[in-house]
Amino acid sequence: MELAGSDIALHFNPRFRHFSEHTIVLNTSRHGDWQTEERHKNKLSIGDTFCLRISLHHNHFLVELNDRHICHYQHRIPPNKITHLEIEGDVSVQRVKLINCEKYAYSTPAPVPTHRYAVSSTHVSSCTTCLHYSPAPTAYPPAPPPTYGIRCPFRAIPM
Predict the structure, then answer these.
(1) Signal sequence: where (predicted)?
(2) Which terminal Cβ of the chain has fewer Cβ within 10 Å, N or C?
(3) How far is CA 127 from the centre of its chain?
(4) pLDDT 10s digit of each residue in the chain, 159 long?
């Protein structure tokens, strides 16, 4: 989850045998400076298909992988400052879908030429954002009806 400028509200980085690590690293970058990393056990293997779900709550992100709790990641930057979602690296993304709380308005952003997705700044309390992506989008997906429990498959690709 990104903010305008160089800030990154939530960086999710699964590592596979990276310097003998097999871990998931979460972090925040403020003004270009990385904060203290949080590390969690990575139960994924290279080539696995997985579902990543990030739920935005008032004080934290709830991070789940394949319907299993990974952590509560405390906000280090106010969530209303989040403007983009960016997915990059050695992952084959099948879908990206933003799911909003019924009480918050959703406005469809204008098309962009990169794999960067706008996020409504009104996501504040107990909202679930589930990430899906369709290859080579020409525009952002229309707002789905409010719902929970949608799976978000990704596939990790070896370098």
Answers:
(1) none
(2) C
(3) 13
(4) 555 567 999 999 998 876 778 899 999 999 999 999 999 999 888 888 989 998 888 899 999 999 999 999 999 998 888 878 888 887 888 887 776 544 333 444 444 434 444 444 333 333 344 443 333 344 444 444 433 333 344 444 443
The pair of structure tokens assigned to 111 is 């098309």
Instruction: Tokens 């899906």: give the residue.
Output: 132
**Residue 48: both structure tokens together:** 């696995």
Helix (H, G, I), strand (E, B) or coil at 79: helix
Phi, psi angle pair for 120, to nearest 5°? -60, 135
Residue 92 makes CB contacts below 8 A (sequence gap 6+) with 154, 155, 156, 157
